[in-house]
Design brief:
heterotrimer; A mainly alpha (214); B mainly alpha (203); C alpha/beta (280); A: 214 residues; mainly alpha; 81% helix; B: 203 residues; 2 domains; 7 helices
Amino acid sequence: MSTKIVRRTIPLIITFLVGMLMIGEWFLNIASIDMIAESLRQWGVLVSAFAMGLGSVNIVIRNTRRIQKREGTDWLYAIWLLVVFFVFIGIGVGMGSASSQYQYIYNTILQPLSGTMYPATLFFLCSAIYRTFRIRSSQALLFVATGAVILVANAPVVAATFPILQTTKAWIMDVELTAAYRAILIGIGLGTIMLGFRVLFGLEQTHLGREEGE
Amino acid sequence: MISTDPSIWIMAFFTIAITTLAFRDNPAAKFAEHTFLAAQAGNYVVMAWRNINQIGISGLTKGSIIMLIPLLFGVALYTRYSKRYIWVSRYPTALMVGIGTGVTVRGFVEFQFTQQIVDTFKPMNSFNNIFFVVTVIVCLVYFVYSLTPQNPALAKPLGYISTAGRYLMMMAFGASMANTVITRVGQYAGRIMFLLYNWLGLG
Amino acid sequence: MTSEDNTIWDKLQRIPREVLYLLVIISMIIPLLNPLGLPIPISPQTRTLYDSLDTLQEGDVFVEFIDYSAGSMSFHEPGFIAITYKAVQKGARLVLLSTQVEGPMMYEIVINKMKPFLDNAGYVYGDDYVYLGYTAGAETALAAIASNIRSVYTTDQYGTPLDDITLMQSVNNHADFTMLISYTMGSPESFVRQFNTQYGVTTHIHCGEMMTPTILPFWASGQITGLLNGGVGAAEMEVLVGRPGDAVKLTDVYSFSNLIVFAFLIIGNIGFIMKKRMSE
């Protein structure tokens, strides 16, 4: 069988058939289609679980290379990273994710890190607001003014003192913002459906990676 | 009273170390970053294993031979690390993309079009309702930038409407920016609460 | 840098970021140590959620997706506690699950805090509430759960087969869900698509404030029945159920921190506008 058929065409056919089956299940009420679709969804969940390990393989490969290179103090951090990685897996898989031991290392190590990593972007956000949100045009003025009103209205001590802010905020959120975002969502929806059908019909093949020889 | 629990001190160290990353890069922050990466990746593997065991392996051991197919597909994903066999990973990718696209797209028309458009048609009996409907239409016109009217007389009014749409969206984005600030404030305040109440024993 | 760049207006635009960061941190510490106790107005989005929970009958199945991580625990956890408290008061049975990878750990943390009122209400694990654990697959998993929960879950989080769990013997798919809520910083739309759009299941969302703009149109159209707006919404729900807690404390933080950010936004723009006028 031609290489291109096996390596590209058949996967595209799989995407098309599976996708159309999922869509067909929605519109048709046929027991055999429902049954196949249910199995496929179960398979999809299982394959997604395998996909979760892909990033971990990358981490192990890259950090092993860092240890081999021994540049500066970089390799010491890489050793620590691999130690923590395998300790988590050892305890989680060996004793179970519901075990008190796994709960302990999660609470002590991952929870404070995960709980601070994303929220700490607050500082970068504040810095960006201070340095870049400048009123250079009338549109920027609207942007800054509305942002300022909502910021102040979200401060209960000010909103309690000036009830008009609460009313203004409610109007901006429930009328203006909802209407504008509705239009944006309809626009995004058009794009998403177009992209979805392009993927299903094989017009969009980025999920399969590059052609051989490119 | 300040905590004497070693795990609380470790949690406090990690919290402060990550916070210092905002000020400048330093060894403690780098150490914490690497620990986070490792722990997060390890957690992903642990949770994935539980799913694979629960659905795939236990299904197989209970006699459902067909579970071999998704298990093999899952293993095939890892051929992406081989230059020679990378094409094998396209099969499970194609399966996941097909299922995901089908499941998402099938409800989209009703979810993000029909019901949204129906709700937009409000009775035009108040300023808010009129403003709402006009805003939706005006902002939609902004997106229809590929529409070039044959009649040049229409181009200018469409241009004004499109500009009005941009202004209205700028207002919405300003409000969105403020909401982002309050989200991050609320999230980070949780860490401050931990440091004050659990670690330092204040409040 | 020339002397022309060293006016007061330039300095206003170049305040060191460390000063800003420290002020933000201090603005959080002060109200947490000295709470203000200001009244909290209830938004219509929270009110619809509360009123919907009020319609729960004894024995109804209330499905809760614990899909938040440690990053948003500060407001999702109080929201979860307040809403679950209300559902328990109404005698609803709780099916808890997660499609976010940190969900199981968040469950273990929050269930310890909820144990006292669950025990008080006579709630027994397996009979009145159950936690099924984490499932991969995002929206695919939601579609699978909606059509047949046993296609993705064969046991609960602790390895007990579903058929051995009293509560799960009568819960198979969407038809057995009275209503559901997702506590998420991810994609709330997927819950609405898979449960409400397809099967008409009453769907509530508790998301961060920064996601509220994209979700409000769905609340306005009735596709989402109740919407809790981040920490503010969690505080409102705590007030409504009569159990002020961590979320109410957070609202005091908003008072100060928001004003600091507002002040710096204005200061930066004053410097910019005055500098521009001077050079013109």
